[in-house]
Design goal:
about 25% helix; six-stranded mixed β-sheet; Lysozyme; 3 domains; Lysozyme-like
Length: about 650
C-alpha cells in the first residue's frame, strides 16, 4: 500500500497520520544517465536487483524505483513490518485480524483485515509463485512481487506493458490499493514527483541514484475509479470486435479483483450454450440462476456480449478453482449438431477476443491454457462423470489455434519416438469419426443436473431423437487398449469403472484425444502410436505420423522412479492449516479413480503454480505453500502436486 493511500485509510479509521513513516521530499536532481546506478559495489548490486525485477515483469526501471522510493525510501528494514502493515522495499502488505486486535503495526484503526489493500503480499505471491516468507525478507523477491503487481495493473488498463514511464500513471495509482480515487491519484502524483525531480540515497544495501526527468508528463487518462482501474461500464474487448455489455444476475458470479488480488487468470474456457443467443442472455440474467460466463458469442455475425467483468469470478466451468483462474466464453450452438453450428464469424471474433485476453492477463496460447469445457477436470471423485463435454467434437481446434497465431507443427513427419512429447493433430476436414447420438435433444451436451455452476443449457424446443450414427468433420481421435482397430476403446474409470470398455457415444469423452493436446509417447507398433493417458497406456491410429506433430520444448513430469503413484487432483487448494483463523478451508483431496504410476509421464504447463483459494465472504485470497503442475492427463486436464513428481524436458 502506498504511504499516501495508507494515510487516507488510517485517518478514516481515526488514527493520526503521524504514526506513518514519511517519505520526505525527493533528493536533489541527479545528472546521471536514466538507468539506476550506484557509486559502490553494494550500490551496483542493489541497482541490479531493481533492473532484474523490472526486466522480468516488463516494468520500466525508473517507475519501479520511484514507486519503491515513495513506499520505503529504498529501505527494506530487514523484513520488519512497517506501520501500515507492509514489508520490504515495495511495502507489500499483510494485515491479520490479530494485528488489528492487538494494535500492532498494520492495526489500521479497527479496519477489517479482509480488504485487498491490506493483502498485497498475498496477491504478489499469487502472481509470482514466490513464497510469502521470501517476499517479506528478500529484497529481490520483494521487488519482483511489487513489479508483478504493477505489471498486472498496467495490462488490465492498457493490454500491455509499455516502455514509456509516462504511460504507467494509472497502474501506479492502482498500486496504492486505495478505494478512494483522490487518494490513489495523490499517491501517483507523489511517485511522478519523484520521477521528475530524481532521487539519490545511501541505503542499507548501498548507494542508489534515480536520474531526474523534469520533462516527464504522465498520461492521466487511465486513472482508477472507486472500484479499480479499468473497471468502468464499458466492455473489456478488443477494438476489432463488436462488443456490448449486459450484466448477468448477481447470483451467477462473485465480485473479485483479478488479477490484482493475486488470483491470476491462467485459462480461457470455450463453451457452447446449447441454446440460442437471446435465450442464453436471458438465462444468465435470471435472478434465480446460478451460472454465467464472462462472454457470449453470437453465431450469425460474431457479435459479443460481456456479462461478467473479467476481474470477477463467473460460475461457468463446474470447478470452483478453475473458475477462480479462468475467463469463460460461451458460443451459440449445439455440441452434437456438427461443425456447421460454429461459424467463421464466431471463430474469428473469438480469436480476436482470446488474443486480447492473452495479452492482458498473460494466458499462454496453448491447449493447456486455452481449453474446452470438456477439458476442465472434475472437482470430486463422484462428480467427474457428470462434467460437461462442450464445445464437443466439432469445434475445430486446429483452425482456431491457427487464428490465434499458435498453430501446431505440421503433422505427417513420421512416427514419433518413444519418450518424446507429441501434439495430437488430426486433419479436421477428413477426420470423420463415427459417433453415436442417443435419446437427447439435438446437440444437448449432457452435463448432468447436479452441476449448479455449469453454464450450458439444453434447448427446450429441440426435438428428442433416437440413436443414430453420425459422421462429421471432427477434431478428435479414439484411443484403444491395444494397437488394433478391433481392440476395445479405452474406458475412463470415472465413466466405466476400472474394468469397463469405452464407447462411441458422443458424450463418452473419456476415450478420445483432441487436436492440440500434447502427450508423451509410450510406444509404437506398426501404424499405431501409444501414449500415457489417464494412468494407462492407450493406442491410436497414426500411419506415418499423419495424426501427430512434434512438441519440442514441452515440459514433462512424472513420479520419481520406484515411488508410489502420484495422486491426481481436480483443484489446487491450500492445506487446511494455511487458512487464517475463522475461515473455512475448501475441501481438497485427490480424485480416487486416477493416479500417475511410476514410469509414466505427462506434458505439463511451463511452471507449477501456487495453491490458493478465495474466501468470498471476507474477500481474502489464501496462498498456500504447495505448488501444482497443470498436466494433460487424459481428455481432461489434471493437477499434480510438484512434491510428488519430477520434471524434465520432452
Amino acid at each position: 500500500m502506498g504511504i499516501t493511500a495508507a494515510a487516507g485509510l488510517l485517518l478514516a479509521g481515526g488514527v493520526a497520520a503521524a504514526v506513518l513513516p514519511r517519505t520526505g521530499a525527493p533528493a536533489q536532481t541527479d545528472a546521471a544517465p536514466p538507468a539506476a546506478g550506484g557509486s559502490t559495489a553494494a550500490g551496483a548490486v542493489a541497482a541490479g536487483r531493481f533492473a532484474r525485477a523490472a526486466r522480468e515483469f516488463q516494468v520500466p526501471v525508473p517507475v519501479l524505483m520511484a514507486v519503491a522510493y515513495a513506499e520505503s525510501r529504498w529501505d527494506g528494514h530487514a523484513g520488519q513490518l512497517s506501520a501500515d502493515g507492509g514489508y520490504g522495499l515495495m511495502d507489500l502488505t499483510r494485515v491479520t485480524p490479530a494485528m488489528l486486535a492487538a494494535g500492532t503495526p498494520g492495526g489500521a484503526g479497527g479496519r477489517s483485515a479482509a480488504g485487498p489493500a491490506l493483502h498485497t503480499l498475498d496477491a504478489a505471491a499469487g502472481l509470482t509463485g514466490i513464497a510469502p516468507a521470501l517476499l517479506r525478507s528478500r529484497d529481490l523477491d520483494n521487488l519482483r512481487g511489487g513489479a508483478a503487481l504493477l505489471a498486472a495493473a498496467e495490462r488490465r488498463l492498457t493490454g500491455g506493458t509499455p516502455a514509456d514511464p509516462a504511460a504507467w500513471y494509472g497502474a501506479v495509482a492502482r498500486y496504492s490499493r486505495s478505494a478512494d480515487p483522490a487518494v490513489a491519484r495523490r499517491f501517483a502524483d507523489e511517485v511522478y514527483g519523484v520521477l521528475a525531480s530524481g532521487a539519490r540515497r545511501t541505503t542499507p544495501a548501498g548507494r542508489l541514484v534515480l536520474a531526474a526527468r523534469p520533462g516527464l508528463r504522465p498520461d492521466r487518462r487511465t486513472v482508477p475509479s472507486a472500484r479499480g482501474a479499468g473497471d468502468g461500464d464499458g466492455p473489456q474487448c478488443p477494438a476489432a470486435v463488436r462488443c456490448s455489455v449486459l450484466p448477468a444476475a448477481s447470483a451467477t458470479y462473485q465480485r473479485a479483483d483479478r488479477p490484482l488480488d493475486g488470483l491470476r487468470i491462467r485459462y480461457i474456457v470455450i463453451h457452447d450454450t446449447e441454446g440460442g443467443y437471446a435465450s442464453s442472455l436471458r438465462s444468465f440474467r435470471d435472478p434465480s440462476g446460478d451460472a454465467a460466463a464472462q462472454y457470449v458469442m453470437r453465431a450469425s455475425d460474431g457479435a459479443v456480449t460481456q456479462m461478467v467483468p473479467d476481474q470477477d469470478i463467473a460460475f461457468h466451468a463446474g470447478n470452483y478453482w478453475f473458475n477462480l483462474h479462468s475467463v469463460g466464453i460461451e458460443h451459440e450452438g449445439f455440441a452434437a449438431s456438427g461443425a456447421t453450428w460454429y461459424t467463421e464469424a464466431q471463430y474469428r471474433a473469438t480469436a480476436d477476443l482470446v488474443r486480447y485476453l492473452s495479452a492482458r492477463y498473460g494466458v499462454p496460447l496453448d491447449r493447456e491454457h486455452v481449453i474446452g469445457h470438456d477439458n476442465v477436470p472434475g472437482v470430486t471423485s463422484s462428480g467427474v462423470a457428470g462434467m460437461h463435454w462442450d464445445p464437443g467434437p466439432y469445434w475445430d481446434w486446429t483452425h482456431f489455434m491457427a487464428l490465434l497465431g499458435a498453430p501446431a507443427a505440421d503433422a505427417g513427419g513420421g512416427m514419433p519416438a518413444t519418450g518424446t512429447a507429441v501434439t495430437v493433430a488430426p486433419p479436421f476436414d477428413t477426420d470423420r469419426q463415427a459417433v453415436r447420438v442417443c435419446g437427447q435433444p439435438t446437440g444437448a451436451s449432457g452435463g448432468g443436473p447436479d452441476h449448479a455452476d455449469d453454464a450450458d443449457h439444453a434447448d427446450d424446443d429441440a426435438p428428442a431423437r433416437g440413436c443414430r450414427e453420425q459422421r462429421e468433420p471432427s477434431d478428435f481421435l479414439y484411443v484403444r487398449t491395444a494397437p488394433s482397430a478391433s481392440a476395445p476403446l479405452f474406458g475412463d474409470p470415472a465413466l466405466h469403472g476400472h474394468a469397463g470398455d469405452g464407447s462411441d457415444a458422443i458424450d463418452d469423452w473419456g476415450g478420445t484425444v483432441s487436436a492440440g493436446q500434447r502427450f508423451v509417447v509410450a510406444g509404437r507398433s506398426g501404424d499405431w502410436t501409444a501414449i500415457w493417458f489417464s494412468g494407462a497406456k492407450v493406442w491410436f491410429a497414426n500411419p506415418g505420423g499423419v495424426n501427430t506433430a512434434p512438441a519440442p520444448g514441452a515440459v514433462v513430469v512424472g513420479p520419481v522412479t520406484g515411488t508410489a503413484p502420484a495422486p491426481v487432483y481436480g483443484q489446487a487448494f491450500p492445506a487446511p492449516s494455511e487458512y487464517p483463523a475463522g475461515l473455512t478451508p475448501s475441501d481438497h483431496r485427490p480424485l480416487a479413480q486416477y493416479a500417475v504410476p511410476a514410469g509414466q509421464a505427462y506434458v505439463a504447463s511451463v511452471a507449477p503454480v501456487p495453491s490458493d483459494d478465495y474466501v468470498a465472504a471476507s474477500g481474502v485470497v489464501v496462498i498456500g505453500r504447495e505448488r501444482y503442475w497443470t498436466v494433460q492427463y487424459g481428455h481432461r486436464l489434471a493437477l499434480l502436486d510438484a512434491a510428488d513428481v519430477v520434471a524434465r524436458s520432452g
